[in-house]
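Hi, here's the filled form for the chain we discussed.

Project: internal
Contact: R.S.
Residues: 393
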Amino acid sequence: MRGGATNGDTGAGDATTTTLADLDVAVAHWGINAWGGAEYLVTHLAEALDCDRVYTLGEPDPVDPNPYGDVRFVNVTRDLSPSLFRQLQATAGRVFEYALWEDVDWREYGDLDVLVTSGATTRAVITPDDTLHLNYCHSPPRWFYDRYHDRKDSLVGQLARPLVRYLRMRDATVDPRVDGYFANSPVVARRIRKFYDRDSEVLYPPVDLSEYENRGDEGFYLHLGRLDEEKGVPAAVEAFAGSDHRLVLAGGRGDVNERVMDRIRRADAIDYRGFVDETEKYDLLATCRALVFNGHDEDFGIVLIEANASGKAVLTRDEGFPGLFVEDGENGYRHDGTPAGIGDAVERFERDGIAAEPREAVETFSTDAFDDQLESSVARRYNRFRATGDRYQ
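And the returned structure, exactly as it came back:
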């Protein structure tokens, strides 16, 4: 793996007087408008902390049962007054989320020792002074910070700028309410340092490696994820539309325009499966030739880990965490994100294959590793917090 994970103070050797089993812990997650990687993460995080529920803004949408476990999502806006007005605010998105979270009175949910929040707006919570607040950061809001200039040429982007500036200030002012950060990758840890001037501990999202297997190569390349512009889907479609190699797209319809969808429908080499359940996902990973990944400056990208866990190479854009994770010729190949670059990575893989066993690259991401680090870190941070009374980075 290129680049090291720079953790904050891990407190190695600290005397621990309280274990996780002694603590009253709650988990909050900003909201659910689709079942995805963040919801998978927070479900497993809650399970590891022995929490049977996660507090969230609004009801999950879609309303399907949690596909990742038995953890329930509890809508905190029902307990805010006036309830109907608050629930309407929750549907409006990020504009009201900071205010909604800071109005939640956590004393109504028990005498909490630790509150673990997931997402950016949940950081606005105001906890009792003896409650440790830890945040699992998927990333500081991209459109407030490192991607602020990406929409400057569009009319919508220009009109939204005053609101984005306000929300950026709102985001910055809630940071002191967080006692410590977890980051999902070294890339996000770098952003936390850059935009919040805070250290963080890298805690990789968990992958149940036992669920993945290699059942051979049925000759198709796989793209796994929503059909979004941000995922670089148009370039991947362009690369395979006139190719001799077959591409299977598995994921819900995202924000790509109708021209891209029409190209997908007309291309003999492209098979769009739509959203697939976990069983079909495992099957596709087990039988594909390699995974094609083209996300823009991705924070983490759990599908890369899933592909390597299935013994398959990853052909990824050389940005963000994927650019650190993939070693050319070892567990995959990196490319520049253009149709030509994707095509070149495919041809290099076809010609040279890969030298390493992909599964060896993913042991760091096991559920056991996640559980052990989370449990020890929460207990250690709580003991440091209670001993010093200071914010623990």
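Let me know if anything looks off before we file it.
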